[in-house]
Design brief:
The structure is a single chain. With about 120 residues, the protein is an all-alpha fold. It has one domain. Helix content is about 50%, strand content about 0%. α1 packs across α3. The chain is globular and about 45 Å long.
């Protein structure tokens, strides 16, 4: 018997990705970060902004927290990279788009994925 389950991202990961995209779409510029890649990864379908957890005004404090946290960490990674730190481990990040959005910074960091996978087996 084959396993026909379709793996989908966790609801929390999807929500965070959608809030990052919503920040760009509904919040006034300048934006804390530009991230609509997560929207493409989540592929929520038409009407996603009509969901109760996506109401532009009702989610504003949550969006602010999410994008501020992401920006803080990315700025910190950049500062530490300039000081010689070469590793950035993202655990349980769901639909994180750091490597796609910040390729100039990500390219300076060591890719730990193969090492982590080897340790898990």
């Amino acid at each position: 018997m084959s396993d026909s389950r379709v793996e989908v991202p966790d609801n929390t990961a999807v929500r965070v990705a959608l809030w990052r995209a919503m920040h760009v779409q509904v919040d006034a510029a300048p934006h804390v970060l530009e991230d609509e890649i997560g929207l493409k990864l989540a592929a929520p379908g038409d009407g996603w902004r009509d969901r109760p957890d996506m109401h532009p005004e009702g989610t504003k404090p949550f969006r602010a927290s999410i994008v501020a946290r992401a920006r803080f960490i990315e700025d910190l990674v950049g500062e530490q990279s300039d000081k010689g730190v070469s590793q950035y481990v993202i655990l349980g990040a769901g639909l994180d788009t750091f490597a796609q959005r910040r390729s100039e910074l990500a390219s300076k960091l060591q890719n730990l994925l193969p090492a982590l996978l080897l340790q898990c087996h």
